[in-house]
Amino acid sequence: MATVYEDALPKHHQATQGEKLVIAASSLGTVFEWYDFYLYGLLATYISAQFFSGVNETTGFIFALAAFAAGFAVRPFGALVFGRIGDLVGRKNTFLVTMGIMGLSTFAVGLLPSYASIGVAAPIILILMRLAQGLALGGEYGGAATYVAEHAPEGKRGLYTSWIQTTATFGLFAALLVVIGFRFALGEEAFAAWGWRLPFLISIVLLAVSMWIRLQLNESPVFQKMKDEGTTSKAPLTEAFGQWGNLRWVLVALMGAVAGQAVVWYAGQFYALFFLEKTLKVDGATANILIAVALALATPFFVFFGWLSDKIGRKPIILGGCALAAVLYFPLFGALTQAANPVLAQAQASAPVTISAHQNECSFQFDPVGKNTFDSTSCDIAKTYLAKAGVSYSNAEAAAGTIATVKVGDKTFTAPDAAKLSGDDKKAAIKSFQDELKAGLITAGYPEKADTAKINKVAVIAILWALAMLVTMVYGPIAAMLVELFPSRIRYTSMSLPYHIGNGWFGGFLPTTAFAMVAATGNIYYGLWYPVVVAAATVVIGLIFLPETFRRNIDD
Questions:
Q1: CA 420 – CA 413 distance, rounded (Å)
Q2: What count of other Cβ atoms lies within 10 Å of the Cβ of residue 243?
Q3: pLDDT band at 220 (very low <50, low <70, confident <90, very high)
Q4: Are strands 394-397 and 353-357 parallel, antiparallel or unpaired?
Q5: 148-162 b/e with 16+ CB inside 10 Å = b?
Q6: What CATH number is given to the structural domain containing 410?
Q7: Does one domain contain both 225 and 105?
Q8: 362 contacts: CB under 8 Å, gap ≥ 6
Q9: pLDDT, tens digit, for every residue of 393-419?
């Protein structure tokens, strides 16, 4: 690994042995933490079946995504807790603690009994483990980025910290490879039954290795100098957020850079994966392989854009990536549908689906309690089936009291009048309608799953690579920019909070929010408005308020 880092550096400044160890140790340790964190997202379908089996399928999957997002929700609190500790006692010891918490929480998920074994206690314990992971990750990133940046020579911070930026993708990539390997080795049936636990359990070995690597590191020279001189902050939270001079830059960093970076990161990697599986009906193993190849091709560009930001600045690259994402997301995801499931794309074009109903009689197709069967109105009955089947549809307003109809191409299907039915008669009518509608969709060409033989794999990888390239633009320079925005005495605390609010809340909730938007409207592309709007807002705010930082001295 040292050779890779050395080759990547410009010849007029080859990294010293100590600098290479700092980059390698910080990066490898952070790869492990991201591996832990993203296993959950990759295995959301299996976790939904194991821990949320007491609710309907659509709600269960959104619940699984919500539990995934719970880990992100507490990341800002982890940033506050561990950021304060990092500014008080040091960078190195703080991220040793966060790594231990992360690794043990992940290992525990692999041992957790299912809903069928212990009932509602299973999802509760699962969420507690996710919260512990989120707290730990909230303290990890700021420590690793600060530690590397404070070791980097002037003019090389973008390049050095870009290796930290690769860790999230490398962690996701490692998790993908492990999941793919176990799926192929065990078979889908065994993997779904118990094999999904193995990627969590082997993390205990990775934890031991990563802890040993990080124990070889010394404290950051910038922090050590402050400690020796007695100039470390005594109240980092108060200094960072209680004084407008610094709080202003926290807000600018959040809204003018990190929020857009976060939604581009999660849309380009996680949402793209979920979109392939849940919406385009590509089988999980194929979807994982396709996105793994795209990530492998894009990952070197994290380092490239980090290096480039040392030459031309952080701001144009980050805001340029956000602007391109806002413009390109709809056409890219439309092209992804054409390439990954051309039969579905053809059916949507030749036989579009429309629900005609009075909208006051249509419920939002997500049940926070998990027990609503959505069968009290004809509109709910129609939308529930289409949402479960993953069929995109548009809505047409009808007069109040009108029985909902579903038009597939030129054929119309009338939903049961729920108000006039009850008991077994109601169940029979709903089943008859669903069977009739299913047959109509199949006749119109709507596939139940993507035909692997018809997937244009080269085109899919190219589109996923384009999405990942936008990720590398916004993410490669972000660590260096955040480090440079804040003074050294409160740097860990100050940079961690906007980073984790942006990535934990704006980004982490993206899959859940986007899929809920799709379920509510029926339009499979409607969820893209979330990252598009946030990315566009970041461009505007960043252009006005975000300063350029790449020439700043960070030793003060």
A1: 18
A2: 11
A3: low
A4: parallel
A5: bbbbbeeebbbbbbb
A6: 3.40.30
A7: yes
A8: 355, 377, 379, 380, 383, 395, 404
A9: 888 888 888 898 999 988 999 998 877
Last residue of one domain, picked from the residues 412, 443, 474: 443
- Of 249-253, 392-396, 440-444, 532-536, the range with the highest mean pLDDT is 532-536
Structural domain ending residue among the three candidates 443, 474, 502 = 443
pLDDT in tens, 242-299: 888 888 999 999 999 999 999 999 899 888 988 898 889 898 889 988 988 998 899 8
**Mind listing the pLDDT tens digit for each residue in 52-81?**
766 566 666 666 666 666 777 788 888 888
What's the pLDDT score for residue 3?
Answer: 38
Q: Which domain holds residue 409?
A: 346-443
| pLDDT at 2 exceeding the cut of 50 | no
Could you tell me if 418 and 378 are in contact, meaning their C-beta atoms sit under 8 angstroms apart? Answer: yes
CA–CA separation, 310 vs 312, rounded Å? 6
Band of residue 515 on the pLDDT scale cut at 50, 70, 90: confident
Decide: 409 and 350 in contact? Cβ < 8 Å. yes
The model's pTM is 0.80
- The residue whose two tokens read 């094999």 is 195
Cα→Cα distances 293→102, 144, 386, 554, Å:
27, 27, 32, 37
Specify whether 182 is located in the same domain as 207: yes
Task: Please check whether residue 354 lies inside any domain of the structure.
Answer: yes
CA–CA dist 58, 126 (Å, integer): 19
Tally of domains within the chain: 2
Q: What is the mean pLDDT of residues 381-397?
A: 84
Cα separation values, 307 from 61, 159, 555, Å: 40, 4, 20
Q: Which helix (H) or strand (E) holds 406?
A: strand 405-408
- In terms of DSSP bridges, do strands 411-414 and 394-397 run parallel, antiparallel, or are they unpaired? unpaired
Question: Average pLDDT in the 16-23 region?
Answer: 67
Reference 263, options 170, 336, 333, 325; nearest CA is 325
The CATH number given to whatever domain includes residue 137 is 1.20.1250.20
- In sequence order, the 6+-apart residues with CB closer than 8 A to the CB of 241 are 247, 250, 497
In the three-class reduction of DSSP (H, G, I as helix; E, B as strand; rest coil), residue 99 is classed as helix
Nearest to 327 by CA among 541, 532, 537: 532
